[in-house]
Amino acid sequence: MAANDYRAYLRNHIDMEEAPGRAAHTGSTHRALIFGTLAVMGLLQVASSVAILLHLTGYLREVDLASAQRSPNEEMHSETLIADPLKSFKERKEKCRLKKDTRMPSAHLPIKTPTNFSAKNRNALTMITWDDFQGLNVKMRYHDGRIQVDEAGYYYVYAKTCFRYAEEHDSSKEDVSNVQLFQYIYHEKHTQSVITPILLTKSGGTLQWNIAKYNMYCVEQGRGIQLNNGDGIYVNVSNAWLLDPAADGTYFGTFKISN
Ligand SMILES: *[C@@H]1O[C@H](CO)[C@@H](O)[C@H](O)[C@H]1NC(C)=O
Ligand SMILES: *[C@@H]1O[C@H](CO)[C@@H](O)[C@H](O)[C@H]1NC(C)=O
């Protein structure tokens, strides 16, 4: 008890003695605090401006990563600095992205039926027309046998054509002892003043279809190519009268791979 009282007395005594000195001391501490706070606020202003700049120039992710690795205390500071202005930026950016159709252009079209190709002019080339109502078409156009490009880029172009012949279905008994079955994919450049089609790829064969009662032969081709706005692609075949009208037998398509 006595020891406690003595300690209390000592404390009071020391407090009283130091009082005047401390008043002056706390005054300068306040000033230092105010200057310190102002300096910190200034720094925060600069830091938030820099943060917005970094965000706009695409450094946001790196900043986020770096702050995740910092100490919790520091992280809290940078969070309050960066989070608010950047959050709204992020949200706006997200909204823009959702509104924009980010799908790659593509088309896949089955042959237009009923087909009505004549058995005359057998080896003359015939352009196939496609059914754009039955097929898929994303950001591409279809016109008069041609798939047309709306968005320039590097595309993969493909086509499959099946030819078939059944003796019993041929009332006119056509000569099929030597049929040439060829498929050609052409590219029409929009920029040309006189459009001259460029052959992209060809394939096929010559077959003797007078031996078996039922015959079928399919040609499938594909390749990559740079296409520009307004360019068209189309498919010509020989002996179009033998084309298989099934959607899974004869189709034409393309899809964009990159810019
Ligand atoms: C098929 O084409 C021929 C001429 O090549 C024409 O006379 C005939 O009317 C056409 N049939 C159909 C269903 O379009
Ligand atoms: C493709 O066939 C059409 C007839 O349908 C013809 O007018 C055109 O010239 C052919 N294209 C080529 C490059 O032979």
From TrEMBL:
Coiled-coil positions: none
Top-level taxon of origin: Eukaryota
Domain THD: 105-257
Record field: transmembrane: 32-54
One Pfam family named in its UniProt record: TNF
Subcellular location field: Membrane
GO biological process: immune response
Entry GO CC: extracellular space; membrane
Gene3D superfamilies per record: 2.60.120.40
InterPro entries from the UniProt entry: TNF_dom, Tumour_necrosis_fac-like_dom
Keywords of this entry: Cytokine, Membrane, Transmembrane, Transmembrane helix
MF-aspect GO terms: cytokine activity; tumor necrosis factor receptor binding
SUPFAM superfamilies documented for this protein: TNF-like
Alphabetical list of PANTHER family matching this protein: TNF SUPERFAMILY MEMBER 11, TUMOR NECROSIS FACTOR FAMILY MEMBER
Family, as annotated: Belongs to the tumor necrosis factor family.
Listed name of the protein: THD domain-containing protein
